[in-house]
UniProtKB/TrEMBL annotation:
Coiled coil: none
Domain of life: Bacteria
Record-given protein name: Biotin transporter
Subcellular location(s) per record: Cell membrane
């Protein structure tokens, strides 16, 4: 006698329901996710005493991954890091080059990869249909960015763990919480709109 463990079937993500298939199947949405992250990176608020500024990047990473799903979300961030390492001015304040990835803030950039997988995987399970469930996923994804960023920051600068957390986490908690809340609050209404438009189109 065998017992089969069945998992819920993956659900379509927002991009797959809202956009033409030619965009989701050709990689166009990956490029759009990369472009949004690059643009958001230029929105910068310096934090006194910290080498890590508040930027719009995390909002773009979380939102695009939730809308695109884990595979496309990850691909958009891999492309983003690759373009920046290759010399395109896509990092914060137009920074570029491999030295940015291996510098003090490089861990946060690497953390984008893990965060995009978490946010995208949540959407595959339908968390982006409700604000509270999506906010929980966004919080987990943000924690992944912090974990990678602070660990890297401590190693590169020689800071102790407590100092690294004080410099690399504490100043950004309120801003990142607001960005996660904004991303979480935008997705359910977007789903309702797409569902309404799709049902209207089907009825015609």
């Amino acid at each position: 006698m065998t017992t089969a463990l069945s998992l819920p079937a993956p659900l379509p993500v927002l991009a797959e329901s809202a956009l033409p298939k030619v965009l989701t199947r050709t990689g166009a949405t990956v490029v759009l996710g990369t472009a949004l992250t690059a643009l958001a990176a230029q929105v910068v608020v310096p934090i006194p005493g910290s080498p890590v500024p508040v930027t719009g990047q995390t909002f773009a990473v979380l939102f695009t991954a939730a809308a695109l799903g884990p595979a496309r979300g990850l691909a958009s961030q891999v492309l983003y890091l690759a373009l920046g390492a290759a010399g395109l001015p896509v990092f914060t304040q137009g920074a570029h080059g491999v030295h940015v990835l291996v510098g003090a803030t490089g861990g946060y950039l690497v953390g984008f990869l893990l965060a995009s997988l978490i946010a995208g995987a949540g959407s595959r399970r339908g968390t982006d249909r409700t604000v509270l469930r999506e906010l929980a996923v966004m919080a987990l994804a943000s924690a992944a960015i912090y974990t990678c960023g602070v660990t890297w920051l401590a190693i590169v600068t020689g800071m102790g763990p407590a100092k690294a957390v004080a410099v690399g986490v504490a100043p950004f908690l309120v801003g990142d919480a607001l960005k996660a809340a904004l991303a979480s609050s935008l997705l359910p209404p977007a789903w309702k709109l797409v569902t309404r438009l799709n049902s209207t189109g089907s009825a015609r």
